[in-house]
Amino acid sequence: MKNKKFIDEGYIKFNCKWIDEKLSVEVPQSLKFWRDKLFQLKQIGYDKKLKVGYGNISVRIGKNILISGTQTGSIFPIEDTHFTLVTNYDISKNEVVCRGKLKASSETMTHAAIYQASEDVNAIIHIHNKSLWGHLSNKVPATNKEVAYGTPDMAFEIVRLFNETDVIRKKIIVMKGHEDGIIVFGSNLDDAGNVLLSYL
C-alpha cells in the first residue's frame, strides 16, 4: 500500500486551466537563487526510481502567485520559463488558473491556502527531507496524516493550522499525509529560506 501512495506523489490533483503563454511578470533573481540552492542541498529534486520531481517554491506577486512549474525537480539551473503565474484559484472547487509555459506545481493549492491565511506571508518553500520530517513530526504544527497533498482537504488543513496553532510564529509545517513533505514560509524568500536552514 505504501508504494501505491508514493507513486501518487508529484502529480496535479486540481482542475487546471492552463494558458500556455510567455510569463507576463519578471521572475525575481531571489526566486531562482533559492530554488537552485535548495536543489544543490537536495531538498528539491528528482527521484530517479519513481521518476517524479519533488519540492517547489513560490512568491506572492500582488494578488497572484509565481510558482515553480510541475515536474521541474530535475532541472538545474532553473530558468524563467520554469515558473508559472497563478492568476486565480478556488479551493472549494479545486480549480487553478495559471499562465506560463508550464502548468503550476501540484502543490499550488497548498501554497494558495497559506497566502490566503496570512497577508504577512510572501514566500513559500516546499521540500522533501525524510530525516527532518521524522524528527519534526511531533515538534511543529503538522497536518492530519489522513489528508493527501495537493487537495482541497490539505488546503483546509492549512487554514486549520493557522487558526489553531502557533504556525505563524514557527513558520514551518510538517505534512504528515505527504511523506517527507515539509513547508516553510516567510515575509520574503530570505526569511523562508533561513527558517529552513536553521532546521537543516
Short description:
The chain has helices spanning 2-7, 29-40, 108-117, 130-136, 152-164, 167-170, 189-199, and strands at 15-20, 45-47, 52-54, 56-61, 64-68, 83-90, 95-100, 123-128, 142-143, 172-175, 181-186.
Can you describe this structure?
The protein is α+β, with helices and mostly antiparallel strands and 200 residues long. It has one domain (2-199): 3-Layer(aba) Sandwich (L-fuculose-1-phosphate Aldolase), CATH 3.40.225.10. Helix content is 32%, strand content 28%. It has helices at 2-7, 29-40, 108-117, 130-136, 152-164, 167-170, 189-199, and strands at residues 15-20, 45-47, 52-54, 56-61, 64-68, 83-90, 95-100, 123-128, 142-143, 172-175, 181-186. The chain has a nine-stranded mixed β-sheet, sandwiched between helices. A two-stranded antiparallel sheet has the order 2-3. Strand 6 (83-90) and strand 7 form a beta hairpin. Helix 3 packs parallel to helix 5.
